[in-house]
Amino acid sequence: MGLYEFLEKNSIYLVLIIALIVWFSVFVYLVRVDVKLKKLEDEFAKLENKEEVGK
Amino acid sequence: MIWKFLLGVYIAIITVLAFVIPIGFIPGLGERARIIFLHVPSAWLSVIAFFVAMIYAVRYLRSKNIYEDVKSAASAEIGFLFCFVTTVTGSIWAKFNWGSFWNWDPRETSIFVLLLIYGAYFVLRSAIEVEERKATLSAVYSIIAFVTVPFFIFIMPRIMPGLHPGSKGDPEGAGPVVTFKMDPNMRILFFASLLGFTLVYLWIFKLRSRMEILKIKIQNKIYQEV
Predict the structure, then answer these.
(1) Assigned domain for B136 exists
(2) B168 SS3 class
(3) Is the keyword Transmembrane in the record (chain A) (predicted)?
(4) How far apart are CA A33 and CA B85, in angstroms?
């Protein structure tokens, strides 16, 4: 039995796959936001340090 | 970063188990009882978020530190989002269990009122421009709003007869869903799911708070340069 036929007969697993895709997308989005935010925070901290040294 | 990947795997495992784990026979609910693994933790997450919003509101009133205010608002935002998710998922479930998307059951009514209460919180915040005044008033509102949360989430739906599992005089005999009468598999997965959702909340809350704090720092920098 192919995957398509299996999912057609056992639709609960189709819902499971969709739920996993939704969770995975949310997870990837959160990781991306986290990484970008960290980069911005580091750049801002560097800028502040430079200004303090300049004074 | 490693704990975040582990959390991703943990949530994926819970999601898979939520669909495949044997839960035993539950009168009146059957397989539809599996919603408990995702719907109830969403509601739980919103309660935690509203509680944290209240804690930071108290901290703001004590310290007058604007960072405490933005953290309080960030937590209330997450709470509102998940309260909405709980309402939508519950409504879809209700269509298949009770025959209609909305029945004004005590549980549905209470979550609707809660959405209105916290919706008004954001209206209040957006209506005031002076930062300090906005922070003070919304902190007071957040504290008062949270007083209603235990009543609307835990008390009112349990003391009134209704359709929702766990209501007073549950006709199907399904009993409250969140009790120790649950099948042992179901119980373990349910609490594991609560833990997973709590950790997801902590992550999102941390991200939102860091973002708002950075925004304030950048704004201050711009004012200093002008």
Answers:
(1) yes
(2) strand
(3) yes
(4) 21
